[in-house]
Write a sequence for this structure.
C-alpha cells in the first residue's frame, strides 16, 4: 500500500457521521483525490522509472523519450496533464503501457490506480490483442499488425438473446492461446460473440434487481418491516426539515426503489422536476468529486442495463457496486432485525463486492477512486453502513437546495 492510499485511509476512516463538523471533513476528503498527473508520477516512481524528486518537466521528458523509443507518437496534449490536470483517452492509456514496457500486472494496476477505470475488456477484440501482446512481450507495432487481421464485427444495440459467452470464459480461453495464428483463428470463429460487452455484469445486475425489486423483494420487505425504524434512522443520520415527507404507499416502480436504496424516498423530490438522473443533486457539489459524479447510478442507466442495451463500463460498474451493497445489508437486516452490524460484516461485504467486480473483469474497490471512496467510507465509519451511505446522499440533496430552505 502506497503513502497516498495510507494517508487517504487514515483521514477518511476517521470521519464520524455522529460528530459536529463531519460535513466539512467530507468536503476535505472530496478535495483530496489526486489528479492524473500526480497519480502517473507516483506510478512511475513506485516502479523505479523516475526518481522521487522528478519535476513535471522531467516526467514529461521521460514519457516523451519512452514513446519515441517504442516507435509511438507521443501524446499531443501531454503538457496539459500538468498544466490543467487533464486525463488521457483509453487508446493513449494502452499506448503508454507499451511505451513504458509494462507487464500484465503493471498494466492492470496502471488502469486501476492511475486511470481509475477497467483494464482489458474481454469482449473487445482490439483490447484482447493489446492484452495478448503485452502478455507475450510484443511491441506496439506488432500488436497493430495483428489487429489489422481482425474480422469486422457489428456492435449490437442490445445484448444477445441467445447463447452468451461471458467474460470469465473468454479470459480463460485467451489465456491458453500461445500463437498469433491461434489468436486470430479464435477471434474469427467467435466473432459474433464480440458484438456486445458487459454481459456478465448485465446478468448479475438483472439477478440483483429481481431480488431487490421483485414481488416480495428486499426493498418491499425493508419498507414493510422497518418503516418506523427507517424513519428513526433518517432522523439520526440524515438532516430533516419541514419539507420531509415520509411516503407510506409505494408502487415499486424502478424510480421509487432506486430512491429507497439511496435513502431519498422519504424526501419531497419535486425539486427535481422530471429529472430522474439526480444530476441537480450531484453536479458541482463540494462533497462529491467529479469522477464520482460521472456515470453515477441513475434510473436511465439501470433501465438500459435491464433491457440489455449498451452503456459505459463505468456506468455498469457503479450500478453493480450499489446493488451489491444494498442487497447485502438488507439481507442482513431481515435476518438480524437491525440496521446495526458488526465489523466482520464490513470486510465480508468488501470482499463480496470485489468478487463480483473480478468476475466481470472490472477493477476491485480502490479508495483512491472517488466513487469507491463513498462506499468504503460508509463501510468503516459507523456500525450502520447503509444509513451512513444514505446520510451522505441526503446531505447532497439538502446542500443542492439550501437556498430554497432559507
Amino acid at each position: 500500500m502506497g503513502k497516498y492510499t495510507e494517508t487517504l485511509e487514515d483521514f477518511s476512516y476517521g470521519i464520524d457521521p455522529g460528530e459536529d463538523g463531519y460535513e466539512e471533513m467530507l468536503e476535505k476528503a472530496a478535495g483530496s483525490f489526486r489528479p492524473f498527473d500526480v497519480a502517473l508520477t507516483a506510478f512511475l516512481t513506485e516502479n523505479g522509472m523516475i526518481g522521487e524528486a522528478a519535476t513535471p518537466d522531467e516526467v514529461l521528458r521521460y514519457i516523451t523519450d519512452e514513446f519515441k523509443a517504442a516507435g509511438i507518437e507521443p501524446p499531443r496534449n501531454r503538457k496539459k496533464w500538468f498544466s490543467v490536470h487533464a486525463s488521457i483517452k483509453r487508446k493513449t492509456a494502452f499506448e503508454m503501457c507499451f511505451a513504458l514496457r509494462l507487464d500484465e500486472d503493471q498494466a492492470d494496476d496502471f488502469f486501476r490506480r492511475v486511470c481509475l477505470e477497467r483494464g482489458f475488456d474481454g469482449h473487445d477484440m482490439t483490447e484482447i490483442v493489446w492484452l495478448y501482446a503485452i502478455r507475450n512481450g510484443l511491441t506496439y507495432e506488432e500488436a497493430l499488425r495483428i489487429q489489422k487481421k481482425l474480422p469486422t464485427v457489428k456492435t449490437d444495440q442490445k445484448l444477445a438473446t441467445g447463447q452468451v459467452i461471458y467474460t470469465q470464459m473468454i479470459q480463460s480461453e485467451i489465456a491458453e492461446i500461445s500463437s498469433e495464428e491461434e489468436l486470430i483463428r479464435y477471434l474469427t470463429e467467435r466473432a459474433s460473440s464480440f458484438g456486445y460487452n458487459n454481459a456478465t455484469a448485465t446478468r448479475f445486475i438483472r439477478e440483483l434487481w429481481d431480488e431487490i425489486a421483485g414481488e416480495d423483494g428486499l426493498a418491499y420487505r425493508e419498507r414493510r418491516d422497518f418503516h418506523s425504524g427507517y424513519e428513526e434512522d433518517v432522523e439520526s443520520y440524515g438532516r430533516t426539515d419541514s419539507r420531509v415527507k415520509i411516503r407510506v404507499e409505494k408502487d415499486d416502480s424502478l424510480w421509487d426503489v432506486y430512491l429507497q436504496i439511496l435513502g431519498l424516498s422519504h424526501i419531497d423530490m419535486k425539486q427535481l422536476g422530471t429529472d430522474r438522473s439526480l444530476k441537480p443533486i450531484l453536479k458541482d457539489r463540494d462533497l462529491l468529486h467529479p469522477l464520482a459524479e460521472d456515470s453515477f447510478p441513475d434510473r436511465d442507466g439501470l433501465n438500459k442495463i435491464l433491457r440489455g442495451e449498451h452503456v459505459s463500463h463505468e456506468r455498469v460498474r457503479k450500478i453493480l457496486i450499489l446493488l451489491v451493497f444494498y442487497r447485502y445489508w438488507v439481507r442482513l437486516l431481515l435476518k438480524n432485525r437491525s440496521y446495526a452490524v458488526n465489523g466482520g460484516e464490513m470486510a465480508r461485504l468488501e470482499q463480496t463486492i470485489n468478487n463480483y467486480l473480478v468476475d466481470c473483469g472490472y477493477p476491485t474497490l480502490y479508495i483512491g477512486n472517488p466513487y469507491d471512496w463513498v462506499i468504503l467510507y460508509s463501510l468503516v465509519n459507523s456500525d450502520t453502513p447503509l444509513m451512513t451511505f444514505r446520510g451522505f446522499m441526503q446531505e447532497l440533496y439538502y446542500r443542492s437546495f439550501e437556498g430554497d430552505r432559507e
Notes: The CA atoms of residues 79 and 359 lie 37 Å apart. The mean pLDDT is 87. The chain is about 60% helix and 0% strand. The two ends are 45 Å apart (CA to CA).
